[in-house]
Amino acid sequence: MELLGLGNAIALIGAALAVFMAGAGSAVGIGVAGRSAAGVLADLPERYGLNFIMVVLPGTQGFYGFLGGFMVLQNMGIIGEAGPVQLSWQQGLMVLAACLPIAVTGLISAIHQGKVCSGGIMMAAKRPEMAFKAGVVYAVMVEVYAVLGLLITIFMLGKTNIDWDAVRVTVEAVAG
Predict the structure, then answer these.
(1) Given its phi and psi angles, is residue 118 left (phi above 0), alpha (psi -120 to 50 degrees) or beta?
(2) 117, 77 contact by CB (below 8 A)
(3) End-to-end CA separation in angstroms for the chain
(4) Which of 31, 100, 117, 168 has the fewest CB atoms within 10 Å distance of its CB?
């Protein structure tokens, strides 16, 4: 399948940003929380289960970015049974703009969630009964903003005024 046009390239940049930025934030956030967990587990290996959730929580933003990028690729016909599309540069910009909410909120919230989880891990080392009450609950409060970014991305992709089937038919007509 050949992807044609500037609009397609701009839309693919949006999908890539959603995946790369949210994924990078998750990698940093997991790294921050993981370092704290490793330090605690050196002295208290029985706390592995308590720490595991707080280490993996910052990874969810990477999945959200992947979902946003996947939706773009599916709409463009790169993934799935639908044929390729031909987007104008304006349509490509709309798709790029739709990908930015999860890209930016994913990057920033994953890093900060890693810091919150790190604090929760350190707190749970001294007071394990507070692990869920404070550690996880505070981390989930940061997660809310990543979820909001994902929702806005989904809403914007659904309302870009791009008739995906119409632009697909145009390409098929040209190719045929």
Answers:
(1) alpha
(2) no
(3) 13
(4) 31
Structure tokens given for 127: 């007071």
Paired tokens of 29: 């956030």
Rounded distance, CA 114 to CA 35, Å?
10
Cα–Cα distance, 172 to 176 (Å, whole number): 6
Return the structure tokens found at 173: 């007509």
- Domain residues of the chain, as ranges? 6-167
What is the per-residue burial (b if ≥16 Cβ within 10 Å, else e) of 31-66? ebbbebbeebeeeeeebeebbebbbebbbbbbebbb
Q: Which fold has domain 6-167?
A: Four Helix Bundle (Hemerythrin (Met), subunit A) (1.20.120)
The separation between CA 114 and the C-alpha centre of its own chain, rounded to angstroms, equals 15
State the Cα–Cα distance between residues 60 and 8, nearest whole angstrom: 28
Tokens of 44: 């208290």
Tokens encoding 50: 């308590």
Rounded to two decimals, what is the model's pTM? 0.88
